[in-house]
Write a structure and sequence with these properties.
mainly alpha
Length: about 300
């Protein structure tokens, strides 16, 4: 198959996947306004959406840093438009780099904007996947694209054809952002730009579970320059986390969050978006990974 025809087929597959995801987004938007048990809490629970944790933590960074990792109450968050109370913030402080700009909007508008921005990121993700897999056949590119852009599996018709993306949008979660950061690190690593690759990879560590899964492919795509890329990752992690952790009360709050359940947070529906995409890409690149680590073992 010639390259032009392959590109047209891939664009068609990606376009259909994003179009179907738009329907899921439209189906999920009403859920963002509901006060209920959300995706994963007991049916008797009444919770604000996951995005409330991001918004409230960002507000606390500006006004009360010691409270970033504290459990918000109805009283101290109602004036922000969060009801009944914000969810607990469980990410590394570096995530607040992405959350603080949302404070220019009211909470409901910021939640919707966060969803819409991430939806637009699906186009970027499409481009990155093709850039990483352009030498593969259509079946491989199409499979990885459908996983990343749609993840079509649902046990409940009210969640559309993708429960992962329904709750990604309904909770205004951050998993599309994280996937985009991981893919950007892969993309620039493949193009021999270890500094840029390392910066994006370091930024993706705000929820390190998925970045850790990406290590074999990150090392492979930065082969020959992995020392420089790794140094940049470390510098990025320090530069984006240490200044915030140094604020009074933040480090102790972070540690308390980890030991009281943050470190054992289970994989919810939306978690499979970055997880399965990273695994699928690693499988598609398994020969390159095997060659790279084979050389390491030989040495």
């Amino acid at each position: 198959m010639d390259q032009k025809r392959k590109l047209l087929i891939v664009i068609l597959i990606m376009g259909i996947a994003i179009s179907l995801n738009l329907l899921i987004l439209l189906q999920a938007i009403p859920e963002t306004q509901k006060i209920d048990s959300g995706c994963c809490a007991p049916k008797t629970a009444v919770l604000a959406k996951d995005y409330s944790a991001f918004y409230f933590a960002a507000w606390n960074l500006i006004h009360d840093p010691a409270a970033i990792y504290s459990v918000g109450s109805t009283q101290n968050a109602s004036f922000l438009g969060i009801s009944p109370r914000p969810e607990s913030f469980k990410y590394l402080p570096s995530f607040l780099i992405f959350a603080v700009p949302s404070l220019v909007l009211s909470y409901p508008r910021a939640l919707l904007a966060f969803d819409l921005i991430q939806f637009v990121m699906l186009v970027l993700i499409s481009y990155l996947i093709y850039g990483l897999l352009r030498r593969e056949n259509v079946a491989v590119i199409g499979t990885v694209s459908v996983i990343a852009l749609l993840l079509p599996f649902s046990a409940n018709p009210s969640w559309g054809i993708s429960e992962a993306y329904f709750w990604q949008w309904a909770e205004a979660q951050s998993k599309v952002l994280e996937l985009a950061l991981i893919l950007l690190s892969f993309y620039f690593g493949a193009r021999k730009k270890p500094v840029v690759s390392g910066i994006f990879y370091g930024l993706s560590f705000f929820d390190p579970r998925f970045s850790l899964v990406a290590i074999p492919l990150f090392v492979t795509l930065n082969q020959g320059k992995i020392s420089k890329a790794s140094a940049v990752v470390l510098i990025t992690l320090i530069a984006t986390n240490l200044p915030i952790l140094a604020l009074p009360g933040v480090a102790s709050g972070f540690v308390h969050m980890l030991v009281t359940g943050g470190a054992t947070t289970p994989l919810y529906y939306y978690s499979y978006i970055p997880l399965l995409t990273t695994i699928a890409l690693s499988v598609a690149k398994w020969r390159d990974i095997a060659t790279t680590f084979g050389r390491v073992l030989m040495r």
